[in-house]
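Sequence and fold
=================
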Amino acid sequence: MRELRAIVIGGGIGGLTAAAALHHDGWTVTVLERAAVLEPVGAGIALAPNAQRALDTFGAGDAVRSLAGWQTDGGLRLPSGRWLSRTDHRAAARRFGGPVVVAHRADLVALLAARLPAAALRTGTTATLADPGAPDRPARVITPDGELEADLVIAADGIHSAVRRTLFPGHPAPRYAGFTCWRLVVPRPAHPFPAHETWGRGRLWGTIPLHDGRVYVYAQAVAPARGQAPDGELEELRRLFGDWHHPVPDILAAADPATVLRNDIHAAAAPLPAYHHGRTVLVGDAAHPMTPNLGQGGCQAIEDAVVLAHLVAEAGAEAAGDPVRALPAYTRERLPRTMDVVRRSARISRLACLSSPPAVALRTAALAAANRLGPRVVLRGLDGVADWRPPVRTYPAGTETGPTTAGGDIEEAS
């Protein structure tokens, strides 16, 4: 069999997952990352069971599960501290096949990068798609060190993807979702607390423990695009959330101003015509940017990468097979699913962004009523998302040496 070469543009979670999955299948992979070091944007990431099962396909799932913080019930609250709903993590695990793992992005990036040969990662390297390729010619990418050719180019270059603009120049850019987000990690407060998300008028706060004793915090507020606090983002958070329930004031008191990240949120304005062109494919935010309210942005990027690796492996295994033949199937499988997740997440973001008193009161009543019907109703919003299973066999817990049960049932396999 001839050597298959892939170039991955972007060293984020989607790009590194694609590179690791293809390397696991025997590809020669080069990851081109423009930053000088692999420093992920954002502080934390939620990895639902669908993403964990995808990572199981090349033996990385258990390493991710080891990043989980303590498992405890949480729920949805009001700024006063009143609970609107409670989350039973055991019910969620039963429904979706496992718990959600919340990890620091840097830990996940390091875990994925460690699965690649050191020579595969080229940081401080800009990349420009010169030719997307075709069945009769390779794709070409220009770097400061010269031109590279590949059987497959994977564009994982983020929300404002330059490759997407090259492939589909007339397509509308992602649009501002109407709110901005802050993210930070702080030491765990002395007084214990349950994980929670708190909804106020046009504002949202979330606090989740990490496995290493720290706490991941995210917040959002309706705001004009490209805003910036004149006295620093931590002071802005104190103005917006400083009088909310425990542990919010303690967290804000312990936060380091230098660690607060602020990012405007953008989401896909319309579905792309395809997620591929020639020998070039889009994964993650480059293909389907979404709001963070369903916790599926990184999860869908991981799914993209694993499905792509599976399809090109099948195509390459055929007699005189060429992986480019798999790319229309990649679009058929991924575009409808990911755009459904984009729409679901947008609906939740609109609900969370409500700010008028009558609308907020109605939202509070509806959420409280749903909670009285039990956890099944609350969890229903993730049906068809968190219960997804990859189209390939997975590895039993603690091994990386051979396939087991079809459909990714890691619980039975272990």
Remarks:
- Residues 327-352 form the longest helix (26 residues).
